[in-house]
From TrEMBL, chain A:
InterPro entries given in the database record: AUX/IAA_dom, AUX_IAA, PB1-like
Keywords assigned: Auxin signaling pathway, Nucleus, Repressor, Transcription, Transcription regulation
Keyword Repressor: yes
Official protein name in the record: Auxin-responsive protein
Domain PB1 as annotated: residue spans: 83-173
Subcellular location: Nucleus
Automatic annotation (TrEMBL), chain B:
F-box domain location: 8-49
Subcellular location: Nucleus
Name of the protein in its database record: F-box domain-containing protein
GO biological process, one term: pollen maturation
GO cellular component: nucleus; SCF ubiquitin ligase complex
Cross-referenced Gene3D superfamilies: 1.20.1280.50, Ribonuclease Inhibitor
Pathway: Protein modification; protein ubiquitination
Native organism: Hevea brasiliensis (Para rubber tree)
Annotated Pfam families: F-box_5, LRR_6, Transp_inhibit
Superkingdom of origin: Eukaryota
Length: 173, 584
């Protein structure tokens, strides 16, 4: 490089801006001072500050491994693929329907679907007293022991693990 | 002293050295005197090469002729996040080829972020008669054909672990290549494979290997087959389930629950793809004895997660999605007093708005409630300096702290200040901090804190931070134990690098991408410091075709005794004396 150094370390690097920078470097790297002086002198360019802050692309931010990213993206696109179809019969109608219980969030969602499917108003365990008179039908289910129970008494998850099929019977029992 | 050293019989010294396993200790022994160097090198059995380009295979073989176990790491860590383009390097074949002749008794190969081909696997299968352990962590370049060669030929294989590797999955048939006479399997991890293996072959394999303690299945293994597999291996200590979802059927549930109850040694669980809450109670009986739980693929929500972790009183490690929410982390803090490591991953990493109620509070709770917590990886969407300071005061025993705020440059959301003081508190209180990854809005001040306090820091990851070269200078001049530094999207340029050039030889590697380091500075570094490889990566074309002041896209600098490498792709250039002349 051949540029002889008569500059002292304190004036070699915008020392007025970064006094810590130069004094630090000179104390820690005494033996390499020739090298770093050499480097500083050999460098005729200045660093540029970044202009507009960069916005990362989805391919490399946030920093999660591709294998996990793929799994999560797949989850966002498709719902949980598990299904649980049960038969539903309405009293008096020999042909039944089938319904995916796992496509519903809970009892309210289920009743809404059934009301729509069978074009009726269904009574179940959690309804208020004054609604009773207006309901035409009652929703019951057969559990794994073969007993028929009214829908809605137990938590939704427990219902899902014991229900075998559904039956909508007339309310005037 | 010299007289004593030479009068001590070699065999005795060798016997003494055989009790020393740690690399640092072995290196220290070899520096005592020439005869100890000689004795030590003949009896070193295990070598670890943290950067496969830091040394060449012939150099290793020349010094250590009797090695039985090799561990190599290839690509830079940021390759995990797609920042290293395809074809960069990290090929293991030259190592296998050299070791095939030099180490016929090689038993163990552990690779991380390397390119492994089927030819390499076939060579391993053919060359090492006593081969026992193959661990391929985040590797790529091979197919299930290579695995078939390993299965068919390695009679003494104990461990086959493919964790997070990218495998060209031609078929699941490879597993059936383990002969019926093969019974020595101890650990099998195929969780990264997509295709279905023959379930009957898997069950037979599991059934005839009495020492099997680790089994990580892949997603293709359905839940209704898990019970059968578990029943054949009740001695399992670590299990990765396949898909954890099925129609809720009482008989499937009860056989699964029964099978889990039978595994009295089970301490670690993972897998749980598509987990359905209805089947979680099957593992409740073994929860109290679990020490490690990886739910990174389980999309169950906070209610079920809370119920689950509350039963895992012995839990030491938890990896989970942010579905756990603050409320689940509070339960973790209350019930899992032995927790050492927590990783929380984002369930919707690209959503702008939070989809779950997971905030800085969750991490604060765990830092308060879990006295042994020392390793954290936490993805969240908001943070405050106060929270970080609280965490630091609660957990001065923290050794690994990695925070990622989804939005780059996010400030303290309450005060709108940078998070400098929060991270400053972390490095000030956590005196044994070895690894740090920062997030949010950060100025040069945070680097000053790090340079002043983080004296044990070995690895630092920085993104979208700092104002000027002063930041980088603080780190390079202050962190005495720094080995790995990786930086992206920071306004760091030439000055700090050049002033601290000598520091780079004391580190394993430095990565800088989307910063402001000029081509001219790279050339200078490469020319002046011979034992550094200064590699410039630029997909725009040769850096020489642009002005010297133009910043390079990516820069990877690492110390080496092997000189520049020759297996680089077209977009990587080594800056050294020759290349500087060629490129100018």
């Amino acid at each position: 490089m051949g540029r002889g150094g008569s500059t002292s370390s304190s004036s070699s690097l915008e020392s007025s801006n970064y006094p810590a920078l130069t004094s630090r470097s000179s104390s820690l790297y005494q033996q390499n001072r020739d090298l770093s002086t050499d480097l500083r002198l050999g460098l005729s360019i200045s660093t540029s500050q970044q202009g507009n802050p960069s916005i990362p692309s989805e391919s490399d931010w946030p920093p999660i491994k591709p294998i996990l990213k793929k799994e999560l993206a797949a989850e966002e696109n498709e719902c949980n693929s598990a299904t649980f179809f049960v038969k539903v019969y309405m009293e008096g109608i020999p042909i039944g329907r089938k319904l995916d219980l796992l496509a519903h969030d809970g009892y309210h969602d289920l009743i809404r679907t059934l009301n729509h499917m069978f074009n009726t108003s269904i009574l179940w365990a959690e309804m208020d007293g004054d609604e009773h008179s207006e309901q035409n039908h009652v929703l019951t289910y057969e559990d794994k022991e073969g007993d028929w129970l009214i829908v809605g008494d137990v938590p939704w998850e427990m219902f899902l693990s014991s229900v075998r099929r559904l039956k909508i019977t007339r309310a005037d029992i | 002293m010299l007289r004593m050293a030479s009068s001590f019989p070699e065999e005795v010294l060798e016997h003494v050295f055989s009790f020393i396993y740690d690399d640092k200790d072995r290196n220290a022994i070899s520096m005592v005197c020439k005869s100890w160097y000689e004795i030590e090198r003949w009896c070193r059995r295990r070598i670890f090469v943290g950067n496969c380009y830091a040394v060449s295979p012939p150099m290793v073989i020349r010094r250590f002729p009797e090695v039985r176990s090799v561990e190599l790491k290839g690509k830079p860590h940021f390759a995990d996040f797609n920042l290293v383009p395809e074809g960069w390097g990290g090929y293991v074949y030259p190592w296998i080829a050299a070791m095939a002749t030099a180490y016929p008794w090689l038993e163990e190969i552990r690779l991380k972020r390397m390119v492994v081909t089927d030819e390499a696997l076939e060579l391993i299968a053919k060359s090492f008669k006593n081969f026992k352990v193959l661990v391929l962590s985040s590797c790529e370049g091979f197919s299930t054909d290579g695995l078939a060669a390993i299965a068919a030929n390695c009679r003494n294989l104990k461990e086959l672990d493919l964790r997070e590797s990218e495998v060209d999955d031609l078929s699941g048939h490879w597993l059936s290549h383990f002969p019926d006479s093969y019974t020595s399997l101890v650990s099998l991890n195929i969780s990264c494979l997509g295709s279905e293996v023959s379930f009957s072959a898997l069950e037979r394999l599991v059934g005839r290997c009495p020492n099997l303690r680790t089994l990580r299945l892949n997603r293709a293994v359905p839940l209704d087959r898990l019970a059968n597999i578990l029943c054949r291996a009740p001695q399992l200590v670590e299990l990765g389930t396949g898909t954890y979802s099925a129609e809720l059927q009482p008989d499937v549930f009860s056989s699964l629950a029964g099978a889990f109850s039978g595994c009295k040694e089970l301490r670690s669980l993972s897998g749980f793809w598509d987990a359905v809450p209805g089947y979680l109670p099957a593992i409740y009986p073994i929860c109290p004895s679990l020490t490690s739980l990886n739910l990174s693929y389980a999309t169950i929500r906070s209610t079920d997660l809370t119920k689950l972790v509350s039963q895992c009183q012995s839990l030491q490690r938890l990896w989970v999605l942010d579905y756990i929410e603050d409320i689940g982390l509070e339960a973790l803090a209350a019930f899992c007093k032995d927790l050492r490591e927590l990783r929380v991953f984002p369930s919707e990493p690209f959503a702008q708005e939070p989809n779950v109620s997971l905030t800085e509070q969750g991490l604060v709770s765990v830092s308060e409630g879990c006295p042994k917590l020392h390793s954290v990886l936490y993805f969240c969407r908001q943070m405050t300096n106060d929270a970080l300071a609280t965490i630091a005061r609660n957990r001065p025993n923290m050794t690994r702290f990695r925070l990622c705020i989804i939005e780059p440059r996010a400030p303290d959301y309450i005060t709108l200040q940078p998070l400098d003081d929060g991270f400053g508190a972390i490095v000030e209180h956590c005196k044994d901090l070895q690894r740090l990854s920062m997030a949010g809005l950060l100025t040069d001040r945070v680097f000053e804190h790090i340079g002043n306090h983080a004296k044990k820091l070995e690895m630092l990851s920085v993104a979208f931070a700092g104002d000027s070269d002063l930041g980088l200078h603080h780190v390079l001049s202050g962190c005495e134990n720094l080995r790995k530094l990786e930086i992206r999207d920071c306004p760091f340029g030439d000055k700090a690098l050049l002033v601290n050039a000598a520091k780079l030889e004391t580190m394993r590697s430095l990565w800088m991408s989307s910063c402001s380091v000029s081509f001219g500075a790279c050339k200078l570094l490469g020319q002046k410091i011979p034992r550094l490889n200064v590699e410039v990566m630029d997909e725009r074309g040769p850096p020489g075709s642009r002005p010297e002041s133009c910043p390079v896209e990516k820069l990877y600098i690492y110390r080496t005794v092997a000189g520049p490498r020759f297996d680089m792709p077209g977009f990587v250039w080594t800056m050294d004396e020759d290349s500087a002349l060629r490129l100018s």
